[in-house]
Amino acid sequence: MTRLFITLPDPLPENLAAIAWRLSAPGLPSAQANHGVAASAADLPKADEIWLALPASRVLLSRLTLSRRALRQLNGALGNALEDQLMLDPAQSHVVLGKSLAGDDHPVAVIEIAWLEQVLALCRRHGIELFGATPETLLWLGEAAQEQWCARWLGQGGFVRSGACAGFALDDGDAATPPLALQLALAEARRTGTAPTAIALESDLAVDATAWSRSLEIPVLLQSLHADPLPPTLNLLQGPYASRRRGSRGWFIDLAGSQQLGKYRLAAGLLVAALGVHVIGTLADWARLSYENRQLRSEMRQVFQEAFPQTRAIVDPSLQMQRQLADMRRARGYAATGDFLHAAGAVAGQVSGVNGLTYASGRLTLQQPRSVDLDGLRAALISQGYKMATAGEPGNQSVSIERSPQ
After folding, report:
1. What CATH fold (topology level) applies to the domain 1-139+230-255?
2. 26-60 residue pLDDT tens
């Protein structure tokens, strides 16, 4: 993943005539320049992502200790929870939440909305498509980043990185006197038991490291900071300012050359191919079954026509065959299920006598059957294709049987 970090001057110019840039990429050859100044946006190196390195003085880094329930109740109004730390109205601040550090401890970054929108408008005007924006405070490390604070002092400005997602801006000091913000931050760190073992300081100005160490009561080591190789820990382009083309290759529209998009295209292609194979297989199986069904129905029609040539209209050969066979059985004296003789034969041997019986519309009704096991009668009738119903009280009971629906 190649990341291009650009730094814009503050205050912002009307046009970008010189853009300071730094390229971060794994395995970048040492002989290849990884930083420089571009005369215009068109001269910027290609990269997978473009990040804006925001001035430390423009971004407030802090932290919130809130449960997830409390965060949901804030409903995005994080600025209200930081009101005592802000120098402006929370409604004029853009606040973003970083990944939880431990438990309910969350890093946050705050920037003035008006200034951020000016920066984004300036970049859009010059065709620069930003992937993210992060404070320069979080982009540099000292030689022993875990135990040290990392500082860059420019005389009347600079910053200190005091943790993975923590830091603050510097605004004063001189060669023998460290900035007041640094002195206050160290005093607070000692109070909370989080003071560093040393401060790695980079500066192009002459600094009396011994005097700074004596004033801060901590070793101050003059050294050059190096770029953090890990991805930025905070991205201020969230919510309404989120990038619409995450993962685009370069600062201009170059989707065809995007390796990230290529991976998605490959996955999408495989998915479409799998779905295509599934659909084609389903359609082929449906076509085969449909053809077999037509063949079977054609054979049924042929068999029916050969058996009953006098029938001209053939709509449902299976049903018509059943009816023709039933008629032929009746014509030859065979009783069918539901006929009186068949129904009477079904109850024979199960009833010793009745006071009367009626038969109408395929239903046989026995009046006051004697010596009858109703459960046994019902089981015998079911096995022969009948259903049974009883009515009345014991001693004056009737049993009705009729053909079960197919």
Report:
1. Nucleotidyltransferase; domain 5 (3.30.420)
2. 766 544 568 899 888 888 888 889 999 999 989 98
